[in-house]
Specification:
mainly alpha, about 0% strand
Amino acid sequence: MGAGPSNEAEREPLLVPTHPETNTEPVFSRVYRRRWLVLTLFSLLAFMQGMVWNTWGPIQISAMHAYDFTKSDIALLVLWGPVGFAPWLLFMWLMDKKGLRASLLLSAFFMLLGAALRSVPLGDQALRRWLLHGGQLLNGLAGPTIMSAGPLLSTTWFAPDQRATATAVASLVSYLGAATSFVVGPLFVPTPNDTLVVTKAMIPTDNFIRDRIQLVMYSELGAIAVLFAAVLLYFPSRPPLPPSVAAASQRLSYKSSICRLLSNGRFLMIALAYSVPTGVIAGWSGVLDMILTPARVNQVDAGWIGFWSTLGGCVFGVAVARFADSIRGMLKLILVLTMAGASLSATWFTLTCWTRLTHLPSTAATLYTSCILVGIFINSSVPIFFELFIETVYPVPEGITCGVVTFLGNLVTGLLLFFLTFYCTELSWLNWCLTGSCVFSLLLILFFRESYDRLYLDVFVSV
């Protein structure tokens, strides 16, 4: 390969970098070990965003006792997460034009500012309530990037046989953060009945609960500050050389991408199949403690149910994604199986909670099992849905595609929580919404016609 041309050089794709290489290895196939560091930083930030979002649901009894919150207040604190998706078009534009680093830095800054506002120790409870709501809203503004950028990161940094796995880790770790809050909240913040006065000099119950909540928020603030500094010091938008043909290929413009997505019937069909069940379960799990209270499940047990439900979905989701990486072209079949399992599990849970008519045994074992299975099946489908979205509408950029579907999912969550602020006395309707959403999604998937445009490009063009 000297200065003269060669047959190999003539057959080189136009996507090769401008600097010539002196080896026969295609430069677009380079994969860097630093991709794991990039994935870790992104995942930790997503973990904290999910944990902060789900702070109040698992400790709603303590929060209502200490801050005089109502059930509507708790629902509104959870609602700020979906509301943060209102300017999603701006975040998608920033991700498309400025890259992942700029959009992630902005999201991390919102998270840091929101965590700082929540942690201000004010005695004025009215002003404190405003700061708590403002902090939750700022954390919600980080959602469009955190929940949408996983597939973009996996395509930009990972080889085709690792993409689904990287997408699963990046997109599910925020759910893991929400699951952790199910455990951290009830363990660190006692319920009013658990707070026993053993000496006359002991701090009053309300003050003690507020101090423990404050400790949790201080801890979250410290973790977010460390992660913001780490992303500021090192988080490149892309590697020097792309890892695959698809990563190096030319994509549609921002405006053309939005127009194509909104006019593509198959995309809208599968987007609804994703957004309805995932949006419903996000709102449902955010108030799981309120749902399980009529079944005589206390705050700590409800937290453990939510934890194992979400953790199971994350672990199973990574395993399913790894399977999808090893056997390609099976995304629709995987989604059919997961949503069928979700439909059956959600029906079981709903009928178990509706004991006054069904007379089914409502025990801790049945509630744990059915609820955990619901979380496993729905949450594990998220990365598979993301991969199928991208394959369906390629060459639309991954960030824009997933930004649209995550906005739709959060729109569903927002509508659900909005109605919850008005109908918060009897919550069995939430369980029926969950069951119906799973069945609706399964029907759409069964009639969906799959295609694998990006996979075709990587497998055949690269050869």
